[in-house]
């Protein structure tokens, strides 16, 4: 099914929408490896001010049917490129993350290999990654802020363009 979706650079007006989306308790539970306090507006602002001007971060706003549905990004984690994404809850289950990540990987200037981390029980995120060609290469344990404990985590890689 064709999805009416496009990616564009992030505008300042998108930030309040991202902030609301990243505060959602269900989304936090799912993502697990979140910021320490997703309702901390100051921490959110300073994080986004930093990443929006960083040379090593590429971020795109996902626009679905003229609405800001979320974002997709790549950044360096200990020198290795990694992808991430966050979709507003009202947009879940429409194929948006899969399509946006696929589009991002083919259009943004990303390198390979490129990595992703996800909570092992975040089935939706694991599926998004696998549908875009990522494979699990490692399982580990990490501290998940949103759950206040250590949980199982997966590391995935995409080698091909
Ligand atoms: C994870 C997330 C990005 C998925 O976005 P989405 O747009 O709903 O994903 P898609 O619609 O592209 O679905 C991808 C696949 O996951 C499956 N899926 C979606 N929600 C699911 C759920 N709650 N449980 C299990 N599978 C699910 C879909 O069925 C689809 O698989 P299929 O094609 O085999 O049917 C979104 O839920 C989100 O932003 N969550 C909060 C933040 C987060 O977890 N970010 C990722 C951190 S690693």
Which short descriptors sum up this protein?
161 residues, alpha+beta, Aminopeptidase, four-stranded antiparallel sheet, three-stranded antiparallel sheet, 5 helices, 31% helix, globular, binds coenzyme A
Overview of the molecule:
This protein is an alpha+beta fold. It has one domain (5-158): Aminopeptidase (3-Layer(aba) Sandwich). Helix content is 31%, strand content 35%. The chain is built from five helices and seven strands. It has helices at 15-23, 25-31, 41-53, 96-107, 123-131, and strands at 5-8, 58-64, 67-77, 80-87, 114-119, 135-144, 149-158. The strands form two sheets. It has a four-stranded antiparallel sheet, sandwiched between helices. It has a three-stranded antiparallel sheet with strand order 5-7-6, with helices on one face. β3 (67-77) and β4 form a beta hairpin. The radius of gyration is 15 Å and the shape is globular. The two termini are 23 Å apart. The chain binds coenzyme A. Coenzyme A binds next to α2, β4, α4 and α5.
The overall strand count is 7
Q: Could you tell me the CATH topology label.
A: Aminopeptidase
Round the Cα radius of gyration to an integer and report it: 15 Å
The percent of residues in helical segments reads 25-40%
Note poorly predicted spans.
none
Shape: globular
- CATH class (first level) name: Alpha Beta
Ligands bound, unique:
coenzyme A
């Amino acid at each position: 099914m064709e999805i009416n979706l496009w990616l564009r650079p992030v505008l300042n007006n998108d930030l309040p929408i991202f902030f609301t989306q990243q505060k959602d308790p269900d989304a936090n539970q799912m993502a697990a490896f979140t910021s320490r306090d997703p309702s901390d507006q100051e921490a959110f602002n300073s994080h986004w001010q930093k990443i929006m001007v960083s040379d090593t971060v590429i971020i795109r706003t996902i626009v679905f049917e003229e609405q800001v549905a979320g974002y997709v990004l790549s950044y360096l984690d200990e020198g290795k490129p990694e992808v991430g994404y966050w979709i507003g809850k009202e947009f879940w289950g429409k194929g948006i993350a899969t399509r946006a990540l696929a589009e991002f990987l083919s259009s943004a200037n990303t390198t390979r290999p490129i990595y992703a981390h996800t909570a092992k029980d975040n089935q939706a995120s694991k599926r998004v990654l696998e549908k875009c060609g990522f494979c699990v290469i490692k399982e580990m344990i990490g501290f998940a802020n949103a759950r206040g404990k250590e949980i199982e985590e997966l590391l995935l890689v995409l080698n091909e363009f």
